[in-house]
Amino acid sequence: MMTWLTAAQAQAPDYIIQLNAAPLNSVAGQTPRVLSAPASSPAVVQPRPQPGKAPIHLKIGLLLPTESKLLGEAAAVVQSGVQAAHDVDPQADVVVIDADEHNAAQRYREAVADGVNVVIGPLSRTGIAAVAPFVSVPTLALNSVGRDVPTNPKLFTLALNVEVEARQIARLMREDGRSNPLIIADGEVLSGRLKQAFAEEWRSLSGKDAALAEDDGSHLSDLATAVARADAVFLAVEPAEAARLKPILQQDQPVYATSQISTRTPDAQLAGIRFIDMPWFLMPQHPAVKRYARPANALTLQTERLYALGIDAYRLALQLGTVRNPQSIRLDGVTGDLKLGRDRVFERELPVSLIGEGQ
């Protein structure tokens, strides 16, 4: 059994997932069902015909590090999500291509030469950088594209970056009429990324700097003083730390957080916090969500985000392979409302929820 990423590894910029320290018992050793033959000898599955439309005849290459010791299990979860989406809408043949940063470019070129006309992946930044110079068909990378990677009009991005959520929280505060927010962060890498993204977005929106308080595990009286000066608080900390800090917050003071605060069983101390998260978790009965199968076995909350990512990646790949203007793509996704933004990055807008007593 491979172990999952440590917290430090997961928070590093190269990885799509920011926090997970649990093994993926549910995916190790499973044989996925949404597979065709290898790229060298693919079996073409006839697309489902659409009334009044010509068949789209898509062949999607799923370029993932399935044999990687570090990212193999993450790749398996993404692959399972793609499989779940394909089961609902089997309009394309899906070919799984094992590739890491060392052979990703070669595998990509082989797949395209063999008829793949849309690619999902790579998963790591190094893999994306290796493939980028050779992108010749619509390609949906599953991590941030580095600034040093040459631009390509056919290279798109769908990622679960925490910075996107922090920026949405800043906009939400602004829309709610807040004018003097306080960021509470700690010394963790993830907290620092949230802090910086929120601060930059707030400065862009308001022309002013947000106040900042660093939580080092002590001096709660100093934090309480900073809290008293603010009209809203952004908690850029983990759930246990948020619960510890909640008593020093003003009773009627609006408190906001990203999906980092999400747990399956929230601490009662967190009641009243406004937070954002995927429809996959907040709206399981929504028609656009419930049509997709849940993981066959329990995954950790953070790992299940990769499963949802796989679902939306497949759905976007279908559109990227058929529409003439990618800017027109809109998707009511399980990871959020998706639309194409700057630099061909699919932006996610997440629903807002409120943690209640016992919920």
Record field, number of beta strands: 14
User: Could you give me the name of the CATH homologous superfamily of the largest domain?
Assistant: Response regulator
For the largest beta-sheet, the strand count, sense and barrel status come to: 6 strands, mixed
Helix-strand topology string: HEHEHEHEEHEHEHEHEEHHHEEEE
Q: Using only CA atoms, what is the Rg?
A: 21 Å
The chain-level structural class is alpha/beta
How many separate domains?
2
Global shape: elongated
| The CATH architecture of the largest domain | 3-Layer(aba) Sandwich
Helix content: 25-40%
Number of helices: 11
Ends distance: 34 Å
Strand content: 15-25%
CATH topology of the largest domain: Rossmann fold
Poorly predicted sequence stretches spanning 5 or more consecutive residues? 1-50
